[in-house]
Amino acid sequence: MELLVRGLGLKELFKNVLFVITRQIGSGLLQVITLILIARTYGPDGNGVYMIALLLPTTLVTLLSFGAAPANVYYLSGGRVNTLVAWRSILKIFVGGSVIGVVLGAMVIIFFSGKWFPEIPSLLLWISLPIFPVSLLLSFVFSFFQGLQQFDKFNYVLLLHPLLVLLTVVLVILSNLYEVKWLIVAYLVSSIITLLFAFYKLKPFLNNGNPFGFTDYDRTILSYGCKVHLSNILSFVNYKADIFLVNFYIGPVGVGIYLVAVQLSERLWLLSHAVGTVLLPRISQLYNDEDKRKAITPLVTRWVLMITFLSAVFLSIIAYPIISIVFGEVFVSAYYPFLFLLPGIVAGSASRVIANDIAARGRPELNFYSSCLVVFINVLGNFLLIPKYGISGAAIATTIAYIINFLLRLFTHHYLTKVPVLNNILINKNDIKLLKSWVLNKL
């Protein structure tokens, strides 16, 4: 057993996951505290308006990142390109994407804001637009830390942003600035400071050694990245469709309440986010050792699934008093949507791990194919269920989509690796032995 563990590098993997999840717990707590402050101070309507206004820059980042960040992780982790070469190419992609995004965002605000963002003042959208280029470059900088497996720096930088958002939101509230625009300004300022700090941490890695790698690296990462990009766009639509449609049918108040259910349920994704962050560069690094690849992913997936399931059961028991006491009685109607979201959240946790394995094998387009069907089901479900069941209908449609996505990725992974589907789901005797060895400090 010990030889197997050493051969798979599970000790290092576990350490990195622990680092990332510790940061994510801290980040998650900061985000929840920020959400509570905004919800308590600005109410469901203000909370909804704030979140919807931020959808413009986050949507633009998703549309115009071109999959460059995961592609950069893929090639950097395999040692196939120098950081300086990668940085020069990333900057080209950033400049091009930023120009397109700012123009596109301005056109959306001028011509379509009334239809696409009903009840959201256009001024708030204009204030949120500069968040796009800052967030885009920040996502590219993060990819260097992840690809180089510098998870200590990766964690520090990612923790800084929610901390700054919380501090600036507190400052806004203490200054009696009760207009939502100041919350967006706080988010923008926090993003800029985080970007400057992230670049400061990255700069030493841009001076390491002589440049090597692809002479046309920008084209190389776009070739790989476009395959990832299409899947990421669909995943984003799948992830945000319910929020857009809740706003369309119910308005910002409905969004404000629904987002409490979403934010609480997504705390269960802390483990899968951490594992996915660490697993992608690790699996990419093992591109010449298929046996180790086939052993690591099922082991990690089934444990993520089990731990997330048990956590969901526990959270379902304590969620009602948490919502009532922490957010206030006006938000208790978020409880049932929260319960409806839980099965999908559990399935989505394992789905994310498998998707990273598929992408690390150089087949990100397979994630895209499954996402096409899932997005169609999710959007259709939201159209059908929200008018009849309100925000609970949105939660049900989202859960159905997440479960179908998990099943499709399970069978895609089986197609690529011939690993039995149940190996990604059920805990076995070897897992129990491995757990005992960890507990007994034998690693």
SSE map:
Blueprint: H1 2-8, H2 10-64, H3 68-77, H4 83-116, H5 122-128, H6 131-147, H7 151-174, H8 180-202, H9 217-249, H10 252-266, H11 270-285, H12 290-327, H13 335-360, H14 364-389, H15 391-417, H16 429-439
What would you note in describing this structure?
By secondary structure, the chain is mostly helical. The protein has one domain (2-439). It is 83% helix and 0% strand. The protein has 16 helices and no strands. It has helices spanning 2-8, 10-64, 68-77, 83-116, 122-128, 131-147, 151-174, 180-202, 217-249, 252-266, 270-285, 290-327, 335-360, 364-389, 391-417, 429-439. It is globular. The chain starts with a helix and ends with a helix. Keywords: Cell membrane, Membrane, Transmembrane, Transmembrane helix. The chain crosses the membrane at residues 21-42, 48-69, 90-112, 124-145, 157-178, 184-202, 243-262, 299-323, 335-354, 366-385, 391-408. It is a multi-pass membrane protein.
What are the defining features of this structure?
443 residues; mainly alpha; 16 helices; 83% helix; 0% strand; disordered N terminus
Q: Calculate Rg over CA atoms.
A: 21 Å
The stretches of 5 or more residues where confidence is low (pLDDT under 50) are 1-5
Percent of residues in β-strands: under 5%
Overall geometric form:
globular
- Ends distance: 10 Å
Q: Which whole number gives the mean pLDDT?
A: 84
Proportion of helical residues: over 70%
Structural class: mainly alpha
Please, how many helices? 16
Largest sheet: none
The structural domain count equals 1
Count of DSSP strands: 0
Q: In sequence order, what are the helices and strands, one letter per element? A: HHHHHHHHHHHHHHHH
Membrane topology: Multi-pass membrane protein
Pfam family, one: Polysacc_synt
Transmembrane segments: 21-42, 48-69, 90-112, 124-145, 157-178, 184-202, 243-262, 299-323, 335-354, 366-385, 391-408
Main location: membrane
